[in-house]
Amino acid sequence: MLLEVRDLKKVFHVGLFKRKEILAVDKVSFNADSGKFLSLVGESGSGKTTTAKMILRLLPPTSGSVIFKGRDVWSCKKIDELRWYWKQVHAIFQDPYASYNPLHKIDRILYQVFDLMEHSGSDKEKMVKEALREVGLRPEEVLGKYPHELSGGQRQRIMVARCYLLEPKLILADEPISMIDASTRASVLKLFSMLREEHDTSVIFITHDLGLAYYVSDEILIMYKGLIVEKGSPDEVLDHPKDSYTKRLTEDIPLLYRKWTGF
Amino acid sequence: MSILALLEAKGVKAYYSVRRGYVQAVDNVDLVINKGTTLGLAGESGCGKSTLVNTLMMNVKPPLHLIEGTIILDSKVISDMGMSILKKNIWGVIVSLVPQSALNALMPTKSIEGFVRDVIGHHMSVSDSEIMSMAKKRFEELNLPVEALSMYPHELSGGMKQRSVIAISTLLNPKLLIVDEPTSALDVSTQKQVLRMLIDLRKTGITESMVFVTHDIAVLKQIADRITIMYAGKIVESAPTDNMLYDPKHPYTYSLINAVVTPEPEVRKRGLTSIPGEPPNLLDPPKGCRFHPRCLKAMDICKSIEPNLLERWGNHLVACHLFPSNS
User: Fold this and answer.
1) Could you write out the DSSP letters of every residue in B122-191?
2) Between A203 and which of A17, A171, B167, B195 could a Cys-Cys bridge form, CB atoms 3.0 to 4.6 Å apart?
3) Between B45, B219, B273, which is nearest A186 by CB?
C-alpha cells in the first residue's frame, strides 16, 4: 500500500475569549494504491483541502495517522526523512499563486526540483523546457517571468510541469484544472495519465467537480461536513448513491446529454 | 425582420478604444433572438460574449463603441436611440440585463426593498405601497420568501441574492431577459434553483425570451433552445441545442464540446480533446478565419478569406470554409 490514511481528525479552535471548536475533518480513513487515481469530492467547507494538507505534512492532525510506504509521515522529523517524503509526494494547489515566492522568477521553482533530486547534469534547461511543453506552455513565454506576470492557468500548469520533472509517487492535486480554460484541460489530465503509465504514480484529486472525478478516477470518496459519506467506484457512486447528500449532488449536476425532468 | 424575431442584430461591430488602437471584441455579428425562446451564448473567457449582450441592449459606454450595425428590438431600432430614451423606455421595460457581477454589486446599506423602489420608481409614478404589493406578489409568484424583501444583501445567501436580483430585474415584465453567468459562483444545488426560476419566468410569461450567457455548455442543455458559440469576437456556429451537442460542425465548437467533463458514460467514452495554443489578441486578430492558427483542419483559404456565418442544414448556421455554401 502506498498511502494509508487512518482515522484522521482535525479540530480548529477559533475565537479569542469565547473558544469555539470546529470539527473540520473527522474519522477520515482511506487507502491509495500505487498507480491508482482517487478523488476526494465535496463542496467548499467539506474538509477536503484540510485532509490534503494533513497528508502533505502542512497541517498537524488532532489525531490519526498518515502512513506512506509503511512510515508514519508525522513522525518523520529528520531532514533526510523529510526529503525522502518530499521527493515522492507532490502538491498542486487550488490557488497556484500561493505556491510561488513573488520575489523570484518562476524559473526558480522549476530548478529547485533538481536540488531535491540531487540531479547535477548539464541538461537541466532542456528538461525544464520539455516539461513546460508537455503541459502546453511555450517556454519562451513563461521562463524569466515573475509569478504576477502569468495567468492563473499558466501558474497552475507550471506546478504540473514540476510534477513531470520530479516524477513523484504520489500527487495531491487540489482543483488542478479549475483555472485552466476548457480547451487546455485535456493536456494536463493526459500528463497525469502518462506519469501513471511510466512511473506508477498515484494521484489524489481534491475537487468539487464530480464530472472530473467520474472521468479520471478509479475510486471516488464523497466528503460532507468533514466526514466521508460515500466511497466507491465512479459508476457505483453515480448510479447507485447510498448517502442522501450524494444523491442530491448527483441529481443536481447539469449533464451534457441528459435533461433534468421538469426542465 | 421576421415576425418571429424579438431582437435582430445586423453587422454589429463593437470595439473598445485603447491607446494602441481598437480591441475588436465584437466583430460583424448577425444574431436573431426569436419570440418565446431561450438562446444560450457560450464561449471561453475573453471571446466577447459579455460585450455582445451589452451591445444588444445598447448598454454601450466608452471605451466601448458601436462602430457599425443595426439593432432592432421589438420592432424599434434601438441602435440610434439616445441614452435618456433607452433608460426611460427600453431598459427594464423591454429588455433587462443581470450582469455577471450582480451578486457583488448590490449596495450593502440598501435593503432589497430599496432596490425595488429604485427600479419601479424610475419608470412609473406609483405610491410606495403599490410598489411593495407588486414586489410581494411577484416574489410569491416565483416561490421566493417575501421576508427577503426587507433584508440586506449580507443577510441573504448567494442563491437567494441572485434570485432576488433576477426577480427585481423582471418586475416590469421585460420581453427579453439577458442573464450573464448567473450561476458561475454558486454550488450545483443552488444553481439548479436559479435555473428553475429562470424556466418559471418564461413559463409564466413574465418574460418572453431569454439570453443565457455562460461558459458551461452542460447548463445550456438544461435551459437553452438554441446555442450560439463565439470565438474571438465572432459567432462561429449557431444551432438548436441538441444539433449543437450531438453534431457540432465548426472545428472549434467540436473541441469545445469535447472538452466538457460531466459525470456521464458518453463523456468517458469519447474522451477529452484539447486545442493547441491560446486565443488571439483582439487588438490585432489573425487575418482570414480567426481560429485558423489553432485549427487542425485549416486550409490555405482560411488564412486569407474570412468565412461568413451561413445558414446550412436548416437552421444550423456555421462560419467555416469546410462547409462552403454550394456543397
Assistant:
1) HH----HHHHHHHHHHHHHHTT--GGGGGS-GGGS-HHHHHHHHHHHHTTT--SEEEEESTTTTS-HHHH
2) A171
3) B273
